[in-house]
Design brief:
Strand content: 15-25%
Distance between the termini: 31 Å
Shape: globular
Radius of gyration: 18 Å
Helix content: 25-40%
CATH class: Alpha Beta
Number of helices: 7
Order of helices and strands: HEEEEHEHEEEHEHEHHE
Strand order of the largest sheet: 7-6-5-8-9-10
Structural class: alpha/beta
Oligomer: single chain
CATH architecture: 3-Layer(aba) Sandwich
Number of strands: 11
Length: about 230
């Protein structure tokens, strides 16, 4: 096994074990957007597990240093990236800020919270990237605040074509600790899914908006409201 993949496989295995990620192509989930999906992802569960929480923090720190260099600040993307971002900033000994999903309706009406006088360059921390919309909205907010966005790191990405194109157009580099392909590899190895499930899972990733999966055979979709394909 390629040793470079070991951390990505370890994180994928952990996400599956604690059911932060669930795969069920026979009984798909319904996202808030209405999309039918064979995958449900709630990486906030990782915060409840100290050993893996620390491992993810260290992998983030290593990725940031290797891929982007040490920034002036770390920014967490609300809400899933806030806690992980704060842990990373603490470990790196640099300031932390966070980006709201929408501006406050009172007070200073901030989109970015924190002391922006501490520096200009910033790396964003996300828990999950799906279509890239909310993640790149955070990038836009930071740039409007005159910050230099060096890049973004996330625990997991689906690797959707829509997201890849959006990040390329926005000139933002994304580094994910693990991704959909690695997750499927680990899921097969640990027998969370069968070889017969792979075709449906791969088809979903190719065209998630139009994928129907097992629902066409009468299976009832599960609700997965914590997951929104807007990140």
């Amino acid at each position: 096994m390629d040793s470079r993949l070991d951390p990505a496989l370890k994180i994928a295995e952990f996400l599956l074990r604690i059911k932060a990620v669930r795969l069920d192509p026979k009984k798909p989930f319904t996202w808030a957007s209405g999309w039918k999906s064979p995958i449900y992802c709630d990486n906030r569960k990782t915060l409840s597990h100290p050993v893996m929480r620390t491992y993810i923090r260290q992998q983030f720190v290593e990725a940031i240093r290797n891929e982007f260099g040490k920034p002036d600040m770390i920014a967490g993307v609300a809400t899933g990236g806030i806690a992980h971002g704060a842990l990373v900033a603490q470990e790196m000994g640099i300031p932390f800020i966070y980006v709201r999903s929408s501006a406050k309706e009172h007070g200073m009406k901030n989109m970015v919270e924190g002391d922006l006088t501490q520096g200009r360059s910033v790396v964003l921390v996300e828990d999950l990237v799906s279509t890239g919309k909310s993640s790149l909205q955070a990038v836009k907010s930071l740039r409007e605040a005159d910050c230099e966005v060096k890049g973004m790191v996330s625990i997991f990405t689906y690797g959707l074509k829509e997201a890849s194109e959006a990040f390329a157009n926005a000139k933002v580099r994304l580094y994910a600790l693990t991704d959909y392909n690695i997750l499927l590899t680990q899921a097969i190895a640990d027998r969370y899914i069968t070889e017969k499930d792979l075709a449906s899972l791969r088809n979903w990733r190719e065209d998630p908006a139009n994928w129907t999966g097992a629902t066409s055979n009468g299976a009832k979709a599960q609700k997965a409201t914590p997951e929104k394909p807007t990140k």
